[in-house]
Amino acid sequence: MSLKVFASEALANFYTVAAVAPSSPHLAAAMVEPLPLSQTLVAVELGAGTGTMTRALLDELPREATLIVFEINPRFFHYLRENFHDPRLVLINENVEKIETELRTRGYDHVDVVVSSLGLGFMSEEQRRNIFEGLMPFVRPHTVLTQYQYIHSMQFANGRLRRLSLRPLLNRYFSSVKSKIVWRNVPPAYVFTCYPQRTLT
Ligand SMILES: C[S@@+](CC[C@H](N)C(=O)[O-])C[C@H]1O[C@@H](n2cnc3c(N)ncnc32)[C@H](O)[C@@H]1O
């Protein structure tokens, strides 16, 4: 069922869904593995779709944690509301560009971990800036963010189609960005793990 919902929304809204299928469990595992989830109280997910990452996060987060999920697509939001019944979950049917207001009005002043599945490559520079400048006031030295990107990712820039790497964008906001490839996903993807401060390894 989740595949059917995902595929029909991917066709209708390709530029925001930015994928043809939900992430594989392997990609979800690679996105949550670098996160210190057992010590996390405030987790944020950006772009949940039908909830592959949401499930992986809820499986690992402590009982007293909160998982705040942003999903812009009304059909995915409805799907998540119907299929995820967990007191730790706060579902927000809103554009991530509004993250600062949405977190402040709920009383949050920091986030411990962030999992982003946003198709940043399909967004304008202005949208990307709005998202990160809205998020960064909540990032503390211990905060860890993961973001994935399909290995073939391209973008239009100055009228030309180019390969896009998210690394320069992520390095603008995070001092240390590590990456690995997850082959067991369609298509394979890089997982970027971002730290606000330099890490030793
Ligand atoms: C590539 S899909 C990933 C879905 C899911 N996390 C997964 O890995 O299978 C990206 C998701 O981000 C959502 N999205 C895109 N832009 C958004 C925005 N500005 N604000 C909130 N959600 C957004 C899309 O609707 C879609 O559900």
Q: Considering the protein shown, what is the CATH homologous superfamily? A: Vaccinia Virus protein VP39
What would CATH call the architecture? 3-Layer(aba) Sandwich
Whole-number total of structural domains: 1
Q: What percent of residues are in strands?
A: 25-35%
Distance between the termini: 42 Å
Mean pLDDT over the residues: 93
Query: Tell me about the biggest sheet?
Result: 7 strands, mixed
- Which overall shape is indicated by the principal axes computed on the Cα atoms? globular
In spatial order, strands of the major sheet run: 3-2-1-4-5-9-8
The chain-level structural class is alpha/beta
Q: Taking Cα atoms only, what radius of gyration do you get, to the nearest Å?
A: 16 Å
State the total count of DSSP E strands.
Answer: 9
| Count of DSSP-assigned helices | 8
One letter per element, helices H and strands E, the order comes to HHHEHEHEHEHEEEHEE
